[in-house]
Amino acid sequence: MASAPATPAPAAVAVPTASPATLLRLVVIVAAVGALEIACRVGWVPMTIVLPPSVMAESLWQLLLSGSHTRDIVVSFSNVAAAASLAVVLGFLIGAILHTLPPVRGAVEPLLASYYAVPTFMFYPVFIILFGVGSGAIIAIAVLLAIVAMITATLNGIDRIPLVLGKTARMMRMGPIERALKISLPAALPYLFTGVKLSVAYAFIGVIASEFILSGAGIGHAIAYAYNNFDNRTMYGLMLLIVLAVTVINAVLDTIDRRLQARLRR
Amino acid sequence: MRHILGPLLVILAGFLGWEVLHFVVANSSLPSPFETIVQMGVLLRDPDFWKQASQTGYAFGIAVVLSTLGGIALGILLGMGRLAGQVAEPILVNLYSLPKVTLYPVVLLIFGLGISARIAFGIMHGLIPLTLFTMNAILQLKPVYRRSAAVMGLTSWQTAFTVILPAILPQVITGARLGVSLCLLGVLIGEMFAARNGLGYMVTHAMERGDMPTVLAVAVMIAAVALAANGLLLALDRSRQP
Amino acid sequence: MSPALASVAAPVPAEHHARLTGVTRVFGARKGTGVHALGPVDLDLNRGEFFSVVGPSGCGKSTLLDVLAGLSSPTAGTAEFEGKPINGVPAGVGVVFQEDASFPWLSVEDNVAFGLRRSGVDAAEVARRVDYAIGFMGLKDFSKAYPAQLSGGMRQRVCIARTLVMQPRLILLDEPFGALDQQTRLLMGDELLRLWRETGATVLLITHALDEAAMLSDRVGVMSARPGLFIDVLETGWPRDRDSRIVSHPRFGELTAHLWDKLRAESLKHLRGS
Ligand SMILES: Nc1ncnc2c1ncn2[C@@H]1O[C@H](COP(=O)(O)OP(=O)(O)O)[C@@H](O)[C@H]1O
Ligand SMILES: [Mg+2]
Questions:
Q1: Closest partner CB to C148 (pick from A178, A187, A263)
Q2: Would you list which residues of chain C are within 8 Å, Cβ to Cβ, of chain A?
């Protein structure tokens, strides 16, 4: 974990999610949502600050039905998809190239280890100059945020290909391309996928945050707009959408990740 | 010395690339590195800059202290109760990858537009990674440590301070490093949106005026300070694990 | 002899199946302060024999194997396989490495079939050979399992089966049972003997276990501490259809004692030295 990017180490202990824990987690979440609902309904929490979860859900439902924010939703998700794909592809290529150039890697790696300490986001205005207000600048900053996780994961993945698999490839007299496709890639895949997972999370953060600070479209923008116009219903509806989307995407990626990691447990 | 040289060369290459970009971008609305450095000099002599910087520093300092204490405490609590840890882990990981900006309006509604909202937002960013790292460090602690301590006849307090704490310290420091960085990000994003002071505000305000040298000067200075601070923590981190 | 595993007849009938003459290996020779890991070593492997190499750790056993496998070329001396100088990995040589080399992303079946499929053998023949090798190594019930679900010993069997299906004429094994417990090792030794008898292949086994060498081999080469040289080559005189029960034979004790006699001084050098 020494030079890994901003990833909390997954709890090896908690990996085979014991069903009592899963069940209890569900109970905890339901109880928390219920408590908030009651607190709002009873008036302990003023409706001007937080809306009851049921109202949030209702607002989201209406918002989706009426199509009032469909454009924002499409814009945000396509930006996230574009940024994450770019980050994954470019990050993998850069990582793979760096791996073949040890001196360059030695010079770059300390910076990669400290990369997530830099509030990259402060450079968003620079991208606005370069690309103008719109998807270009947003995708650029999101890629910048996500790519280093992929580079680091790629370097780590290639490092961790056991030497003996390389020897095995040589015993089978494989050429470099066959070896890369049939040995190196599958051997490094679990680590690469960790990079993919992180890249998606960072792309999400980058896109939504940029839209929030300065943009003319997207869910982030719509939330900021609703906030500025005291439109709490829309604001909370969209927040719920983000939370749900991130949770679902996380759960899917996590399931794949766990499957891949399970192969490695030796 | 040699391992400093490489990164310095890379940074230098970055500045060169920036210079090239400066020439390529149409009628150069992108300031050159030189202009940026000149602007840094101007800012460093400007009392208003220091006022904004101290605002950011103040919010950041409080957020770091509170999220560090809170994160470690919460992590220990969740780690000690194994089930609690297993229940909380996926929730925390999910919160970690949530774009927390979306929740900033809630923070503003609760705390108002003042500095406390930004502190709270910084804590929201910094607390989770430290909690996760501390919790996982305890959950993954080798049982043989505790058993050895028991065999040596240590009391539970002695075990906590002479065995468990040193054993989890490296991971706690890693988590703290991450937490501190994210705290700064949280405070700055808070300032960029709906604030009237702080360096984040200074950047958005300068951007609205089209004052790009100031935008870049402030961003580069923050990046440099953050990199240096992180480098120090990293060195500390590495000196503890051979 | 089973048709599914039988080694293809050698194209060049040679009295010596593989031969090392004055083989020396120095690592980092160009930097001046090289590590003299091996040699000069002379070794003649007879066709169809079971030869073991024992020696203190770090004495150059794996280096010797790499030279025979064509994975590294000697700094000095010559290596031959079936009468031709070894230049790159020769056809007809199979290796089982010390480390687990099974592919974690493939099932046992696909692991074993991997080499055959890419060598253009037709599907029916692949299935036949894979089936046989999996059965032979006692992996029938696990053919759909993934390596992560298997124990270390079973994974090593997957690697042996994967080497076996390629029908090598020379099988090199580098401490393949190093990580296993003693009982499992004895049983794996039996399987190795069975495999050797059925395939008629030449086997070179590297091991640090003296009893393993004494029990399995026709001949045992004892190596000195680094740089490794053969200080003794011992003929065991066992019949071809031996198995692990010979450990109760008085000769087994004598052989093991003799090996330890030769090795004790060398191992001490290793312990006291680097
Ligand atoms: N690639 C290498 N570079 C430098 N020294 C090596 C290399 N490979 C092995 N050695 C050295 O050569 C000696 C013999 O190694 P090896 O053949 O692996 O020993 P063994 O298999 O008998 O334990 C050891 O001292 C080892 O440190
Ligand atoms: Mg070895």
A1: A263
A2: 69, 71, 88-89, 93-95, 97-101, 103-105, 114-115, 118, 146-148
Co-location of A204 and A86 in the same domain: yes
- Contact between A204 and B99 using a beta-carbon 8 Å cutoff: yes
The answer to whether the CB atoms of A189 and C105 lie below 8 A apart is yes
| Atom in ligand 1 nearest the alpha carbon of residue C55 | 22
Q: Return d(Cα B223, Cα B200) in angstroms, integer.
A: 13
Check contact B-A (3+ Cβ pairs < 8 Å).
yes
- Which residue of B102, B171, B191, B239 to mutate against A (max A Cβ within 10 Å)? B102
Domain extent listing, chain B: 59-195
- One domain for residues A147 and A60: no
Cis peptide before A186 (omega within 30 of 0): no
Residue A110 · residue A142 · CB < 8 Å: no
Give me the phi and psi of C149, to 5 degrees please.
-90, 0
A265 alpha carbon to ligand 1 midpoint, in Å?
A: 28
- Label each residue of B109-130 as H, E or C: HHHCCCHHHHHHHHHHHHHHHH
Domain B59-195 class?
mainly alpha
Do A59 and A86 have their domain in common? no
Write out pLDDT tens, residues B94-124: 888 888 888 888 888 888 888 899 999 999 9
Q: Are residues C100 and A266, on separate chains, in Cβ contact within 8 Å?
A: yes
Parts of chain C belonging to CATH 3.40.50.300: 16-92+169-271
Cβ contact C28:C197 at 8 Å: no
Q: Is the full-model pTM beyond 0.80? A: yes
Q: What is the predicted pLDDT for the residue at C104?
A: 92
**ipTM score for this prediction:** 0.85
| Mean pLDDT, range C82-97, rounded to an integer | 88
Number of domains in chain A: 2
Domain C16-92+169-271, what fold?
Rossmann fold (3.40.50)
State the number of CA atoms in the 13 A half-sphere of C118 facing the CB: 16
Please answer whether residues B200 and B56 qualify as being in contact, where contact means their C-beta atoms are separated by less than 8 angstroms: yes
How many Cβ atoms sit within 10 Å of the Cβ of residue C111?
25
Q: What tokens appear for A200 in the block?
A: 């998606």
Element housing A242 (H / E): helix A232-264
Q: Which H/E stretch holds residue C172?
A: strand C170-174
The predicted pLDDT at position B27 comes to 62
Contacts of A255-260 with CB under 8 Å at 24 or more apart are A256/A193, A257/A190, A257/A193, A257/A194, A257/A197, A258/A15, A260/A189, A260/A190, A260/A193
Phi, psi angle pair for B76, to nearest 5°: -65, -45
Q: What's the domain range around A147?
A: 70-264
